[in-house]
Give the backbone structure.
Amino acid sequence: MDLQLKGLKAAVTGGTRGIGHSILQLLADEGCDVSTCGRAPERVAAVRTLLAGKGVRSHAETVQGRDGDSVRQWMRNSVDALGGLDIFVASLSAGGGTDEERYWYRNFEIDLMSAIRGVEEALPALRRSEQASILILGTMAASETFVAPMAYNAIKAALITWSKQLSQQLAPEGIRVNCLSPGPTMFKGSNWEMIRVARSRIYDNAIRQQPTRRMGTAEEIAKAAVFLASPAASWCNGSHLLVDGGYSKRVPF
Amino acid sequence: MTIERIKPGDFTRTPAGPAPRPDYDHAMIPKERYVSADYMRLEWERMWTKVWLLGCRMDDIPDPGDYHVTTIGKEEIILVRQQDGSVRGFYNVCLHRGNRIMVGEGNATSFKCQYHFWEYGLDGDFVNIPDLETFPQGAPPCRGLRPVRCDTWNSFVWFSLDPEAPPLLDYLDPLQEHLEPYHFERMVKVADMTVEWDCNWKASVDAFNESYHVQGIHPELLYFIEDKDVQIDCYGRHNRYLVPFSTISHRVEETTEIPHLIKHAMKEAGMDPADFDGRVTEVRKALQAWKRKHGPEMGLDYSDLNDDQLTDDYHYNIFPNLTLNTHADDLMLFRQRPHPSDPNKMFFDLLIFKLLKQDEPVPKKPRHEQFRHGEKSLGLVLDQDAYNLPGVQAGMNSDSFKGLWIGDQELRIRHFHHVLESYVGS
């Protein structure tokens, strides 16, 4: 199956590590010009080098996800650097955190608002695209009781709700909006890698819920994500795809 | 990832730079030192009876007549506050028939043996021997209880069984300069336990004198400390290493989420991890700056400590048997005491002292508890060490095991053995 991605232009937040990084790489491998941003300067530099070797046009910036202006500026710079935009993948996340009230603000700014700000800045370019699509990364933890009540789970739920309603608004303009919710995902430097070592009981509880007794890989999430964002998923709009290896037990009729 | 440490010229009162590295060979350390009853006897005669040992805290015996009985090997020592405020020490042995006189801790006007009521003053001198006229030979020719050398330093009472021992401060040199900036006298005792462990006391000392075991025994600490980029310094009898805390080991990848132990350290200092926008590897320096700035308003005086001391573990071994996990806000002190006769057993004393924040209620002084390994938790990390040590001791007793094969990360163990050899012989 041809994903028809060659020559398209894609921007991915949080593409310097983890799921975002795998999505970014796969898009580049499929022939997209790509742009991304992340917090750590040396990771941004490493991504630049990696993308330079893929023979596509690319752009990468150091961005603090809580800083709305810098997220907006990155998106404008991305559109300029790539010469337009067809695909926006909002993958940036602050991750989990319990107890402190300030996590609500943190996840609000980094998970929710970075996506909303990115979309707002991307829209003029997406409207000019023939293959426009937006992919929002949610989480299985938004629709499944998971670890502990926390801002991450609930703010991601807000993001999922928003993405669905956005799909209705933008469909007439030829812009598809979809959402993908990964389950627990393991990769080098993932929070789960830390939890497995540092809080093994939480890890053990999570892995017991996986029918295959393993977590997903970032590549497995990326393959589903890139499909959903690609023109090959032209009739997917407003869909919410759970990619969790069977972690969640409910039947979503 | 490189750990950023304070540099020459930065404020410090505790010497922070690296000491000259001793040029030791790499010989195997004979296992007999850990398992042999003969070696244990030599160790007692040549080492335990020659060194300075920690007895109790000065505030364990604040008022005249307050006493504390401490044990080392087969000996018990009464440490007692005198009327003039000084502290003296005596063997806890009645000169009549050898009975133990005092137990534990308390206040006394005299020390009275409960066997035949021989009575001694707080200064150890005979006060009363009932029916003295029935001893034709008179009272024993000494004045009373046999004295033990005693001194005080840095909130602790010390004693030596050797009347010829060098002065305490000479013995501790150069740690006076290292440890006084922590002001242990401002800290209050919050834990006081003794656990019987089935291992030689040195196996326990060794377990805390290297961070090489963190990956195996304490994997969760890989997300709280740097375990390999550790500065090791050997000084005369004593040694230390400086372990960066509130950071992650070079053995693991940096995560986006701040590991929970680092979050805990931040929260303890009043720093909200949810508002920290830096990376995990940036927390340590940020926390140092935060504590420097906000410590005083929390009533925490860090003015004599350098920046690294605000987060890190300055970890000292005071020869032979004291392990001091020294931190800005607390002192976690381990004292390893030998069993009186069995080289395969020891007593592990855990004492924790804490710097109180402004208006923090002074906790009730903990009652000393003694128990067997496994009967009660010492907290996750110490439980992990404790769980492992009987296996180490059992393995050392195997005919197949000849001695300890020590690497550079375990330099403190080698240094410790050189000091031990200087007392006991090789």
Q: What stands out?
A: Chain A has a mean pLDDT of 96.
